[in-house]
């Protein structure tokens, strides 16, 4: 598989990977592809098998009139993704067993996406052989684990016995499909914002890095078609990298996720650097000296010792992991609080609590900043027009702090950067309006402040225009454009010019 912009190579360390065949500019399209199959993530609660919106899985919940499996009322009239499995369930009289708790994982749905891959294999054997069959599935690493045993019971045996696939699919084939999905599937979101997973073979060829140079957009309104682009300028002959982890997690967290789900240890430049490319994204402040920070002696080893950069203080890897676990648990609890003033104030208290412990750019601080950015300007008592200047400046500071690390870990034209730029423009505008009203900002300084906000909106909308217009990001692209027009009109009315 190759394209004009890249070619596919292979080596024992990386397997198949892609390198550029020419110099590429940031934002240049690499390829477009449709998913081989899409469906619910494993351990999903009851969801509509067409649009994946959460549904009531009890006897009173909405069901497909043909097979009786979960299907929301809006999707009953027209099914695309659910049709093939629906026919199979009807033919073999496979019934959905109603559940008492519709918020818990529903093991019955674990079979859906593997089944869709198997049915797609039968429908398009040529694409299976060309693009899917060679994908890594790590069967040997998975074999004998608790995950393997659960999949054997809930998926393999269920599909072969109840669903009548015994003569069509071997146990090894189904386990291969389960492994391919676990190792290679990418998360996608429906137009309503619910997460699903999709198998995109071209994107899966890209090597992994915790500092990717490839970004992608998935379009639910176009049958979940994916478009991949370069995030930054890439020289000819360079490797193309996507990422299988959340880039705003610390190295310890990313490594654990990659080992447990992708079965490899990442050796990218960020993972090998104890300072995470100078950000100190996982570093703690030393409590024994004034200027030291605590970093790992070997970031890719979870048991490695942590030590201070200025004194003799040391900490075992297990102790560091426990400390992070405790802090993260406290933050996770706040996420369940009602969306209101108390939630915002609790996040600010926790941020202040850990200020003396964590490096300013630590990933836990960064996650708190993300939560605060989302809350400031959107909840009663803290709506944007209500914010005093000091809190407008606070939101500006929060946005710029995250941009500092985002520009290191997701450089260039990334969706996360675009969202942050949009968040940043609003407090800049409202603060400028406040200072103008108080007579402390006028003329050229006011013009520069508004021009800064317009530039942020312009860059944000230019990146978000690649998103599906039905998604929150695609909708925001239009909002950003409209805000840009309004700001320019305001400048003309105020006779500030261009």
Mean pLDDT score: 94
Shape, principal axes of CA atoms: globular
Which sheet architecture does the biggest sheet show? Answer: 4 strands, antiparallel
The total of beta strands comes to 14
User: Cα distance, first to last residue?
Assistant: 49 Å
**Total helix count?**
16
Range of strand content: 5-15%
Give the SSE string. EEEEHHHHHHEEHEEEEHHEEEEHHHHHHH
- Classify the helix fraction into a percent range: 40-55%
Any low-confidence stretches, pLDDT <50, length ≥5? none
Structural class: alpha+beta
Q: Any idea what the radius of gyration is?
A: 25 Å
The neighbouring-strand order within the major sheet is 11-12-13-14
Domain SET: 4-245
Protein name: SET domain-containing protein
InterPro entries: SET_dom, SET_dom_sf, SET_SmydA-8
GO molecular function: N-methyltransferase activity; protein methyltransferase activity; S-adenosylmethionine-dependent methyltransferase activity
Description:
Residues 4-245 form the SET domain. This is SET domain-containing protein. One of its GO terms (molecular function) is protein methyltransferase activity. This protein has 498 residues and is an alpha+beta fold. Among the domains are: 6-34 and 200-242, SET domain (Beta-clip-like, Beta Complex), CATH 2.170.270; 39-191, no CATH class; 376-494, no CATH class. Helices cover 43% and strands 11% of the residues. It contains 16 helices and 14 strands. Strands 11-12-13-14 form a 4-stranded antiparallel sheet. A 3-stranded antiparallel sheet has the order 3-9-8. It has a 3-stranded antiparallel sheet with strand order 4-6-5. A hairpin with a 5-residue loop joins strand 5 (186-189) and strand 6 (195-198). Helix 5 (146-160) crosses helix 6 (171-184). It is globular, with a radius of gyration of 25 Å. The two termini are 49 Å apart.
């Amino acid at each position: 598989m190759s394209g004009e912009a890249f070619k596919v190579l292979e080596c024992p360390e990386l397997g198949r990977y892609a390198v550029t065949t020419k110099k590429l500019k940031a934002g240049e399209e690499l390829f477009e592809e449709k998913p081989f199959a899409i469906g619910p993530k494993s351990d999903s609660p009851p969801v509509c098998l067409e649009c994946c919106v959460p549904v009531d899985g009890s006897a009173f919940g909405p069901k497909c009139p043909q097979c009786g499996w979960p299907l929301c009322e809006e999707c009953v009239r027209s099914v695309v993704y659910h049709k093939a499995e629906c026919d199979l369930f009807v033919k073999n009289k496979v019934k959905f067993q109603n559940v008492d708790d519709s918020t818990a994982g529903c093991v019955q749905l674990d079979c859906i996406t593997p089944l869709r891959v198997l049915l797609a294999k039968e429908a398009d054997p040529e694409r299976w052989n060309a693009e899917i069959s060679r994908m890594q599935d790590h069967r040997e690493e998975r074999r004998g684990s608790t995950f393997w045993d659960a999949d054997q019971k809930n998926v393999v045996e269920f599909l072969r016995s109840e669903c009548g696939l015994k003569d069509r699919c071997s146990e090894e084939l189904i386990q291969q499909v389960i492994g391919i999905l676990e190792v290679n599937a990418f998360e996608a979101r429906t137009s309503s914002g619910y997460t699903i997973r999709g198998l995109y073979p071209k994107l899966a060829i890209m090597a992994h890095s915790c500092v990717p140079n490839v970004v992608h957009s998935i379009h639910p309104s176009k049958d979940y078609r994916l478009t991949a682009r370069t995030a930054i300028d890439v020289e000819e002959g360079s490797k193309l990298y996507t990422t299988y982890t959340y880039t705003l997690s610390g190295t310890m967290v990313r490594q654990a996720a990659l080992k447990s789900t992708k079965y490899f240890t990442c050796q990218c430049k960020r993972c090998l650097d104890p300072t995470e490319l100078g950000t100190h994204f996982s570093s703690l402040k030393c409590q024994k000296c004034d200027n030291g920070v605590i970093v790992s002696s070997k970031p890719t080893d979870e048991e490695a010792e942590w030590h201070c950069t200025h004194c003799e203080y040391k900490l075992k890897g297990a102790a560091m992991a426990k400390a992070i676990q405790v802090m993260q648990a406290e933050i996770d609890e706040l996420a369940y609080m009602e969306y209101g003033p108390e939630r915002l104030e609790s996040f600010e208290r926790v941020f202040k609590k850990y200020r003396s412990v964590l490096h300013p750019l630590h990933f836990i601080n960064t996650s708190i900043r993300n939560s605060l950015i989302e809350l400031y300007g959107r909840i009663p008592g803290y709506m944007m027009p209500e914010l005093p200047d000091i809190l407008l400046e606070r939101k500006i500071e929060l946005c710029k702090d995250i941009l500092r690390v985002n520009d290191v870990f997701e450089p260039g034209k990334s969706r996360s950067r675009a969202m942050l730029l949009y968040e940043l423009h609003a407090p800049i505008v409202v603060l400028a309006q406040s200072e103008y009203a108080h007579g402390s900002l006028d003329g050229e300084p006011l013009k520069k402040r508004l021009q800064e906000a317009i530039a942020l909106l312009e860059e944000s909308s230019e990146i978000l225009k690649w998103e599906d217009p039905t998604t929150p990001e695609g909708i925001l692209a239009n909002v950003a454009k409209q805000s840009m027009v309004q700001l320019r009109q305001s400048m003309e009315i105020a006779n500030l010019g261009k």
